[in-house]
Amino acid sequence: MPDILHDFPIDAPPDDVFDAVSTAEGLDEWWTLSSCGTAREGEIFELDFGPGYRWRARVSHCRPGESFELEMVEALPDWMGTKVRFELEPAVGGGTQLRFAHVGWREASEHFRISSFCWAMYLRIMRRNIEQGETVAYERRLEV
């Protein structure tokens, strides 16, 4: 199975990065149009990406300040059952080393390739939001 993997530093403490990837407020700053959910294993996150793209994910792993994972339970067919994982480690010299993974894809389909590119773009927006407070309107997130 192919996986999407991205590793990069963020100039912020792990707790700040954890909030950005595990809270509705944080996700809405860089990924979703709107979302709601609680960072607790077994809880469901509602992820709204606009008409026709209202998805759901179950929190499959949660260690505050260290790691967070969502398993897609309602999404496009090739996202179903995939897991979006964020692993955080204090970086040498300060900040956080983020290890991102979107695992469980059945094949390297066209949507897999598009999603890999989109994740790189979204994660860049997340880092800029955390480090610089930059906010990008949802409609423009893949243009920056």
Explain how this protein is built.
The protein is an alpha+beta fold and 144 residues long. It has one domain: 2-Layer Sandwich (Alpha-D-Glucose-1,6-Bisphosphate, Chain A, domain 4), CATH 3.30.530. It is built from 3 helices and 7 strands, in the order βααββββββα. The protein has helices spanning 14-22, 24-30, 110-132, and strands spanning 4-10, 34-36, 44-48, 54-63, 67-74, 83-90, 96-103. A 7-stranded antiparallel sheet has the order 1-7-6-5-4-3-2. Strand 2 (34-36) and strand 3 form a beta hairpin. Helix 1 (14-22) packs across helix 2. The longest helix is centred in the last third of the chain and has 23 residues, at 110-132. The radius of gyration is 14 Å and the shape is globular. The termini are far apart. The mean pLDDT is 96.
Count structural domains.
Answer: 1
The DSSP helix count reads 3
Question: Please, what is the CATH homologous superfamily?
Answer: START domain
Q: Class in CATH?
A: Alpha Beta
Q: State the major sheet.
A: 7 strands, antiparallel
CATH structural architecture: 2-Layer Sandwich
Order of secondary-structure elements: EHHEEEEEEH
Give the low-confidence spans: none
Question: Which quaternary structure do these chains form?
Answer: single chain
Determine the structural class based on helices, strands and strand pairing: alpha+beta
**How many individual β-strands?**
7
